[in-house]
């Protein structure tokens, strides 16, 4: 578990399944993803994130505020081949009601510190569709720098899809 001033980053719980599924069924939350997730897909994603934390001791943690699940933030090995892999990414996804409160930035700073100080990573990357200006703003607030030469077409997005092109940000160990 990681505590910040307002948040708890923790392992996933059974009670997280319903709010996690609602978050993944929200068209605004999933605007920069190719599709919404079904309940089964959402449950499978939660299971993968929990298993990653169990296996490594770190990963994509559930983010809680005042006992309520807001979404996730954390670190994850990139699971497909690109010019910048192997790499560990930082990522986040929050319910709409949590937007605009600085939660993503606060949680991401804690995850970065964990990645560098506890895991010993030398570099952490982040990426998103070129349309996702909110996530790019978080990347910049946490000190990441865009590496435009490494922008890429996401291998898991259908060729020609409006979300295929992704920007890449990097941060090296301080």
Q: Could you explain the architecture of this structure?
A:
The protein has helices spanning 17-24, 39-56, 103-119, 133-141; strands at residues 2-3, 8-10, 60-65, 68-77, 88-94, 123-129, 145-146, 152-153, 165-172. It is of the alpha+beta class. It has one domain (2-172): Gcn5-related N-acetyltransferase (GNAT) (Aminopeptidase), CATH 3.40.630.30. The model has no long low-confidence stretch (mean pLDDT 96).
Instruction: Assign the structural class, choosing from mainly alpha, mainly beta, alpha/beta, alpha+beta, or little secondary structure.
Output: alpha+beta
Number of strands: 9
Number of discrete helical segments: 4
- Low-confidence parts: none
Query: What Rg, in angstroms, do the CA atoms define?
Result: 15 Å
CATH architecture: 3-Layer(aba) Sandwich
What's the level 1 CATH class? Answer: Alpha Beta
Biggest sheet strand line-up: 1-2-3-4-5
Q: Give me the strand/helix succession.
A: EEHHEEEHEHEEE
Summary, kept brief:
The chain is of the alpha+beta class and 174 residues long. It has 4 helices and 9 strands.
